[in-house]
Amino acid sequence: MAEPTQKQRMLNGDLYHASDPEIVADHQAALEWTERYNAASTLPAATREALLREMLGSVGAGAVVRPPFHCDYGYNIHLGSGVFLNFNCIILDVVKVVIGDGTQIGPGVQILTADHPRDPAERATGLESGRPITIGRNVWIGGGALILPGVTVGDDAIIGAGSVVTRDVPAGATVAGNPARQR
């Protein structure tokens, strides 16, 4: 059996080298796409939605992503129907990010799947990994919140503005603060 490629390792959430040529090419394609997408802010909504479908893994009907928007690869991002991402959202999608139907995400929110080894010697080798993020249906995430690697946010939850979400959020819960705690 052949050794997995660095991209396969990345997509599996294993340690990988982001400097691998295939990964670098994918990131470059995403940079070029985000430049086109971010320049399309005055184009009709249907045109912007078609652009989203070019790069993202899946896009539900009526999903809106207000430019500027930034991501690592795009193809790991899955948006449900009616999802709304406000200005300046960043999604580091080295592994899958799923955002459920009707979820609203405020400006400046960062969704970060990228992770790094805790051991300094291992980290110094340039290895990194990712842990998937799942955000349920009808979630409201306030502006400037950070969603860290591996977090799952349940349906109907609320995340207060500026919160740093370090662990799973149960369905229907309201969390806020740094680190985010249930209110």
UniProtKB/TrEMBL annotation:
GO terms for cellular component: cytosol. Keywords: Acyltransferase, Nodulation, Repeat, Transferase. GO terms for molecular function: acetyltransferase activity; O-acyltransferase activity. Residues 7-61 form the Maltose/galactoside acetyltransferase domain. It comes from the Bacteria. Coiled coil: none annotated. SMART domains: Mac (SM01266). Signal peptide: none annotated. SUPFAM superfamilies: Trimeric LpxA-like enzymes (SSF51161). Pfam families: Hexapep, Mac. Acetyltransferase implicated in the O-acetylation of Nod factors. Belongs to the transferase hexapeptide repeat family. This is Nodulation protein L. It comes from Sphingomonas sanxanigenens DSM 19645 = NX02. The lineage of its organism: Bacteria, Pseudomonadati, Pseudomonadota, Alphaproteobacteria, Sphingomonadales.
